[in-house]
């Protein structure tokens, strides 16, 4: 995943994923693959604009300086990127195609304008995506809800495909589950509750129509169009005040499970279609207008949130589900629980489990024209507008008669400005640039769109541009796209599970429908690297003062030591703390590798021989080839490095100067520590680069263990072990097993009824 070039530069944690992908790239090249290993910059973003507001420095200048610093660090690390493919999302030649994709979305009816309640950040003076709110609040920003005219992308049109195609991907299961939960597909029924004393109906969506007999009150969201209309004269003031307070809260504050449940009674009642009972209609901020119908039926006997609300406001609780085993348990989520107290003159659910009860109640409601089956999603359309300067301009012109037309000449570039503060109307700084803002063409006078795109826009499709970065006629050449796509390995943090990864999948599917790409999904395999923590075991951050700058470590220890240490810290997917003492050990290991070629304090390399290696050393070399190859293939870099350390120790013990052994070690080490490997490769007489050498192969016969340890059980319990040649007969193994002292005492004076030999691993004696 390409980086945002921040002003703080790269710290050691940032380098983990880049090191991993570089090892894979170098290893795959040595296996004969054609490897595309590119790098670029996700360079639009709020930090550069905030810096511009404070200092007056153009974000472009700040971004260019940051990129120069980032690139220097990455090059110093020896990452084998194809820099001829370098991209930058702020380059007009790049964002021309980001704008082109937006116009295609607009043509397809997938981009539209709407006045929506948005997450407005007071300090940043901009809209935040729902997925960004938690992070900004944690950083101390104030986020409120307010209505604003916005561009919205209809990601919900692709909800089913985004969900079903997940099954085909080689992704971590937790990431796939996070996307499933975010999309939130549910099957249920929309039920009509007739409002008492009003000739209206309140439509409620529920995934549990089988619990309708237990509904004792209804709750609607503060934004529901009937919220104030349902308020009686006595309740109107309280209702209005509650609605005002709800608008000051974010969705996170409203829906948190630990949050105290609040509400206000409207004074109105609705009729339960199954029981005929009048149910009070309440307003509560835990109900969101964006999901279902913005109204729910509450079954407090079987839902903890409804139960808390009912207890607080003294509302009735009726049990309608029971465990089939008559055990006190959480039965609402147990689909084997059966219905009780759930019958009227027309329909009875008593004794039925969930699936049958759901089907019977849904059919009854549809027959009576009291409801209909519906599929709903928690996923909402993507609010795409940002009130910022430093982003891709949205290429739309607004005319006086309300007509919207696309810009015909792309890219539509940003104008130079003197001040980067949002306009007095709450629009972006672009609203303050009259010569850019307004114009006339053959259709009349127009005003350009002043909102810009979110930072996610440029990162939604960047992987495609790496394939064909200089193409000025098309987003990507079809032949090149078919050759390279889709991405074989994508390494990045799990924090992008429902942001970048979901948005990129959405755009990719749109491009697939347009015939621009040939694959349904962009990333075949995803790997989430674990975070590297500071030495205090906390996430690295400026505020904690525990950031370890990559350049400082590079200067002291060099790139190879840093690369190896990052991979040796532990499994790539795990979170692990940085320890400066640990990199000292890696530095010593590299010194031992160096001394295989150069004697200590000498500048002349030793002469290597072609003498025959001792058999045990030969076996160790072939085992190392096998282990390093398999572990690198499976991204188990820490154990691959450990295996190379064992080989280096064995070579030193044997005072080995065998050319084959030394060359093999250097080729294995090269993807991990390319600088020292290249230097020593040259020192032993090679003119060509070690990076062009094929990965060595191993002899299967030489990786087999000559001596193995056999476990001995008596009646399935381990009683001892012994060593034996790997190739031993069954008779010999049984004979040796009976001689093991710790086993013998369990066999004496016993009758052995069965002798089980499992390969050269285990023997089990079954006695009476």
Strand content: 15-25%
Average per-residue pLDDT, rounded, comes to 91
Annotation, overall tally of beta strands:
27
State the end-to-end distance. 63 Å
Most strands sheet: 7 strands, mixed
Mass-distribution shape: flat
Relative helix content: 25-40%
* Uncertain regions spanning at least 5 consecutive residues: none
Can you count the helices? 25
State Rg: 33 Å
In terms of structural class, how would the helical and strand content be classed?
Answer: alpha+beta
Structure, explained:
This protein is α+β, with helices and mostly antiparallel strands and 768 residues long. Helix 20 packs antiparallel against helix 21, helix 21 packs antiparallel against helix 22 (659-669) and helix 22 (659-669) packs antiparallel against helix 23 (674-683). The two termini are 63 Å apart. The model has no long low-confidence stretch (mean pLDDT 91).
């Amino acid at each position: 995943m390409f980086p945002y070039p921040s002003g703080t530069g790269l710290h050691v944690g940032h380098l983990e994923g880049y090191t991993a992908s570089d090892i894979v790239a170098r290893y795959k090249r040595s296996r004969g693959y054609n490897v595309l290993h590119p790098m670029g910059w996700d360079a639009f973003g709020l930090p550069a604009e905030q810096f511009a507001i404070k200092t007056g420095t153009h974000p472009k200048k700040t971004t260019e300086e940051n990129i120069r610093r980032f690139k220097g660090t990455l090059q110093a690390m020896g990452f084998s990127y194809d820099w001829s493919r370098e991209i930058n999302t702020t380059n007009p030649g790049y964002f021309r195609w980001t704008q082109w994709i937006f116009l295609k979305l607009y043509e397809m009816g997938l981009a539209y304008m709407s006045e929506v309640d948005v997450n407005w950040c007071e300090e940043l003076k901009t809209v935040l995506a729902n997925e960004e709110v938690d992070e900004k609040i944690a950083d101390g920003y104030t986020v409120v809800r307010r209505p604003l005219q916005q561009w919205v992308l209809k990601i919900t049109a692709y909800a089913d495909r985004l969900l079903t195609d997940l099954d085909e991907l080689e992704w971590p299961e937790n990431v796939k589950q996070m996307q499933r939960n975010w999309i939130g597909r549910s099957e249920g029924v929309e039920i009509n509750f007739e409002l008492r004393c009003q000739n209206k109906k309140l439509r409620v969506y529920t995934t549990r129509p089988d619990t309708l007999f237990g509904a004792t009150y209804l709750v609607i969201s503060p934004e529901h169009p009937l919220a104030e209309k349902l308020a009686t004269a006595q309740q109107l003031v309280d209702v209005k005040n509650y609605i005002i307070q709800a608008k000051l809260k974010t969705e996170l504050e409203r829906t948190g499970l630990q949050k105290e449940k609040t509400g206000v009674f409207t004074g109105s009642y609705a009729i339960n279609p199954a029981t005929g009972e009048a149910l009070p209609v309440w307003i509560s901020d835990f109900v969101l207008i964006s999901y279902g119908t913005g109204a729910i039926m509450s079954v407090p006997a079987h839902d903890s949130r409804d139960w808390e609300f009912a207890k607080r406001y003294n509302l009735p609780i009726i049990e309608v589900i029971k465990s089939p085993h008559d055990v006190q348990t959480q039965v609402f989520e147990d689909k084997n629980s059966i219905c009780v107290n759930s019958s009227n003159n027309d329909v009875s659910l008593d004794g039925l489990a969930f699936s049958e009860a759901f089907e019977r109640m849904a059919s009854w409601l549809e027959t009576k024209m009291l409801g209909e089956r519906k599929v709903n999603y928690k996923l909402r359309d993507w609010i795409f507008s940002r009130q910022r300067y430093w982003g891709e301009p949205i290429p739309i012109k607004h005319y006086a008669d309300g007509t919207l037309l696309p810009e015909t000449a792309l890219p539509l570039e940003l104008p130079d400005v003197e001040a980067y503060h949002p306009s007095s109307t709450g629009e972006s700084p672009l609203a303050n640039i009259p010569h850019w803002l307004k114009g006339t063409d053959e259709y009349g006078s127009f005003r350009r769109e002043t909102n810009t795109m979110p930072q996610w826009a440029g990162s939604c499709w960047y992987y495609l541009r790496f394939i064909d970065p200089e193409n000025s006629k098309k987003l990507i050449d079809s032949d090149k796209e078919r050759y390279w796509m889709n991405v074989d390995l994508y390494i990045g943090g799990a924090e992008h599970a429902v942001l970048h990864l979901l948005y990129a999948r959405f755009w990719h599917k749109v491009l697939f429908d347009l015939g621009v790409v040939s694959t349904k999904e962009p990333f075949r395999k995803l790997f989430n690297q674990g975070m590297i923590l500071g030495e205090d075991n906390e996430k690295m951050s400026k505020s904690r003062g525990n950031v370890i700058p990559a350049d400082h470590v590079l200067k002291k220890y060099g790139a190879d030591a840093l690369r190896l240490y990052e991979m040796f810290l532990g499994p790539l997917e795990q979170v692990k703390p940085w320890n400066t003492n640990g990199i000292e050990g890696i530095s010593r290991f590299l010194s031992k590798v160096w001394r295989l070629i150069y004697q200590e304090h000498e500048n002349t390399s030793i002469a290597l021989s072609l003498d025959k290696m001792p058999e045990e050393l030969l076996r160790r070399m072939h085992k190392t080839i096998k282990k390093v190859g398999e572990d690198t293939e499976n991204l188990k870099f820490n154990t691959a490095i450990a295996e190379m350390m064992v080989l280096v120790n064995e070579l030193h013990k044997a005072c080995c100067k065998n050319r084959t052994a030394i060359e093999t070690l250097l080729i294995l080490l090269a993807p991990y520590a390319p600088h020292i490997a290249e230097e020593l490769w040259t020192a032993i007489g090679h003119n060509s680069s070690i990076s062009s050498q094929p990965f060595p192969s191993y002899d299967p016969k030489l990786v087999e263990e000559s001596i193995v340890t056999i476990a001995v059980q008596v009646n399935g319990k381990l009683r001892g072990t012994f060593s034996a040649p790997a190739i031993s007969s069954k008779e010999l193994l049984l004979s040796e097993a009976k001689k093991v002292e710790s086993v013998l005492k369990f066999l004496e004076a016993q009758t052995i009824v069965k002798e089980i030999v499992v390969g050269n691993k285990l023997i089990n004696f079954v006695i009476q």
